[in-house]
Structures are given as structure tokens and as C-alpha cells.
Amino acid sequence: MGWNKILVMGLISYCFTSCLNYYHHSNGGYRPKNKKFTLSKHVKQLKKNDLINSENLYFSNDTLTFGTNEEYNSLSYIKFFKNGRCYRSSIDIKNKTDINKLNNPGYVGYYLISNNNKIEMEFFHVKHKEGGWYSKDEGFIRNDTLFIKGTNKQEQEVLRAYIPEKIKGLKQITDW
């Protein structure tokens, strides 16, 4: 009778783990098992006159503080590639110059530039032990700064600025 319980528990845990629509990549970050990016169908190569620079990281002008005594100041950033792919991640401000951490893609995605200054991005997000989901962001580019539309906790529309910073040693490899 004991082996029946073990078999049932094994089947239940298999169902929960196989239902996840993502996997953890060996280089960090999560990837969807079955890619369903809608923007991937419209990918274009970055052109020389486009306002996005694939050699930069675009850092948010906002920080999030976690823990007591400001133990972790999270700074969000976006990395763009010439092939229409991008990723969004965050890093502790203290580690902003750690190239290994900056090269770790958190949430992978695609972007599309239209009219030379409008941008649309789609990312795959994961909450630990839950399923992944896709989200879209849109915004515009003015000079070299990226402005992304979002909402704050009061459900008010806000613009978040992402300022480019040239970082040497960034990987130019996309594997999603």
C-alpha cells in the first residue's frame, strides 16, 4: 500500500513540474519552453541611423530599495541587440560595474522600432514556482534616452526614463 502513495505523489509532482511553460537557462534567466513572442514575427535588423545603440545598457532613472537599512538598491536596465532581441534585468547599484552580472539576461524579449522613434517591447516574465507570461511595453526615443510608458501603484500613467551608458565587455549573443 505504501508504494501506491509514492506513485501518486510522484505523478502529482511530475504534473506540477511539467506544466511549467519555462526553464532556467544555464547562463541565467528564464526562457519560455514554447516561444510565443508576437513581435518575433516582425523582427528587423537594427540600422545605423536607428536611435538605439546595441553597445549600451539603458539604465532606469528609478531605483527600488529592499530590506532594512537599504540593503539592496535595485536598478533596472534594458539591453538591446542588433537582431531585434532584448532583455530586461536589474542589478544592485553596488554591482553596476560587474560585467558578469550585467551580461545575465533576466527577462528575454523582442523589440520593434517604428517611425524611427517609437518602440514596442515584449518580454517573457516568470514568478518563481508559477507559470511565465508575456508583457508588452511601448514608448518612444528622444535623442538617446528611452521613455517607457507604465503605471505606478496608484494606477496612474507614468513615463520611465532609461538613460544609455556604454559598457565594455557586453555579450552580443542571443540564444532565445
Structural category is mainly beta
Shape: globular
Strand order of the largest sheet: 3-4-5-6-7-8-9-10
Low-confidence stretches: none
Through-space gap between termini: 46 Å
* Main beta-sheet strand count, sense and barrel state: 8 strands, antiparallel, barrel
Number of helices: 2
The ordered string of helix (H) and strand (E) elements is HEEEEEHEEEEE
* Mean pLDDT value: 81
User: Which radius of gyration do the C-alpha atoms yield?
Assistant: 19 Å
Quaternary status: single chain
Percentage of residues assigned to helices: 10-25%
User: What is the domain total for the residues?
Assistant: 1
Strand share of the residues? Answer: 35-45%
Count the E strands.
10
Keywords:
single chain, 176 residues, two-stranded antiparallel sheet, mainly beta
Describe, in plain words, how this protein is organized in 3D.
The protein is mainly β and 176 residues long. The protein has 2 helices and 10 strands, in the order αβββββαβββββ. It has an 8-stranded antiparallel beta barrel. It has a two-stranded antiparallel sheet with strand order 1-2. The longest helix is centred in the N-terminal third of the chain and has 17 residues. 19% of the residues are buried. The mean pLDDT is 81.
